Amino acid sequence: MTKIDTTAILSGINGFEQLETVLYGYNNQAYRLFEIVIVVERISEDLKQLVETVGREVFYDMYLATNESVLKQCHTDYLIFSNANTLPRKDFVEQHVKLREEGYFIKGKSVLFDKPEKVTRGAIYNDLCFEVNWLRENGFDLRDKKDQTICNASAWKSDVEKLGTTIMEGSRNKLELRLKSLSLKGKKLQNKFICVHLQSK
Description:
By secondary structure, this protein is an alpha/beta fold. 29% of the residues lie in helices and 23% in strands. The protein is built from 8 helices and 10 strands. The chain has helices spanning 16-26, 45-55, 70-73, 92-99, 121-125, 132-137, 157-160, 172-180, and strands at residues 6-11, 34-39, 62-65, 78-83, 86-88, 104-108, 111-113, 152-156, 185-188, 195-198. The strands form 2 sheets. Strands 3-2-1-4-8-6-9 form a 7-stranded mixed sheet, with helices on both faces. A 3-stranded mixed sheet has the order 5-10-7. The longest helix is centred in the N-terminal third of the chain and has 11 residues, at 16-26.
């Protein structure tokens, strides 16, 4: 078996239903050599149960961590930071992996979608919820410019380790500023529809 080389770090859990939806999104990834670390302030029994249940259906390994222990739970050299309620398109991990380069970090946007109940497992596995027509039919307004400035970012673990435990504090925007402080250059994922940010009204 080929060794995994990437860790997706998910933080900012708003609800277990959205987290479960997002985890199935990662199960649909074209690039499969990754693991997932879910970061929370306190690891509850309910969260452990969810991870155990979903873990029986997905191909990747999952781990739970706190802000202080997250880097210890990452078993690869490359880290992708995203939100626990941000659904990835099937080429999300692949695009980060393709663009990774020493001396750089990567950042990407998303679109906001306020009807997460519309995102079924079938819509995920058939990539429907990343199509403009499907989003529009389900209430998405293309004229709404409230997409995330940065909803995901990635960097080499060796660079992230220089930032210590502050890496998980604040938003992805602050993460970008911290990575820039290391004299790293940024690359952008061009298509904001690569992620759908599930946000309840």
